[in-house]
């Protein structure tokens, strides 16, 4: 039996947190998150992963990693054909129905907590009115309420609000989980923020060598708290390229090949940096 640090140290303590994530051709990211959680989570927890019909080799990689982790449930949605935000939101609606713990966390496949004891720290931020805490949106979206990338909920309050995670109109910024802000605030609840910095302009964090990475910092907590790679299964970095580099990526055959190579390299560098951060807690 393979157990995490939090589960290993508290074998007779009830599970406090369920961690939910959706995989779609992102096994390496999800495996990185599972590895990080094993080393930094304080309280007993479980993980539920839904696979939205990824490529067989991607799902096989994820399934193999999880095989000996008895606190992880992973299942594949065979024949699932939805894609993008609608697929993500639809599957999140299914996952939250499985939650039976006092708290739950939703993580994007290419996002992870990085702070030692993240669960205990965030639970202490919740109170009678603050019922959710998570990562801040990028400029251009509402920045006064947590966004979906890394987020912790008090389960009881969440289940009273009947939130639908499916997007409605992405052009109107009604993407995955857009209902949360209005429904929480209408019920008299607030959400606490883990503040965003992006490596396009912020050059003081551990991911400063990579382009377009979101770093998240909890006020009053010095080390980085979470990160989001932000390109997921596509690995596309083209949206961050400018000038001649942008046109180079558009050259038929050559461009996509160069772009994919860059994406794979940056993906591995992001994963390596996550692990390097987590390993510092053991020194």
Q: Which terms summarize this structure?
A:
single chain; 283 residues; alpha/beta; Spore Coat Polysaccharide Biosynthesis Protein SpsA, Chain A; 10-stranded mixed beta sheet; 9 helices; 10 strands; Glyco_trans_2-like; Nucleotide-diphossugar_trans; Glycosyltransferase 2-like domain-containing protein
Would you mind describing this structure in some detail?
The protein has 283 residues and is α/β, with parallel strands linked by helices. The chain has one domain: Spore Coat Polysaccharide Biosynthesis Protein SpsA, Chain A. It is built from 9 helices and 10 strands. It has helices at residues 5-9, 27-40, 56-66, 84-96, 118-123, 155-160, 179-186, 243-248, 254-279, and strands at 17-23, 45-51, 72-76, 103-107, 111-113, 130-135, 150-154, 190-198, 214-217, 226-228. Strands 3-2-1-4-7-6-8-9-10-5 form a 10-stranded mixed beta sheet, with helices on both faces. Strand 1 (17-23), helix 2 and strand 2 (45-51) form a beta-alpha-beta unit. Helix 2 packs parallel to helix 3 (56-66) and helix 2 (27-40) runs parallel beside helix 9. The chain is globular and about 55 Å long. 43% of the residues are buried. The mean pLDDT is 89.
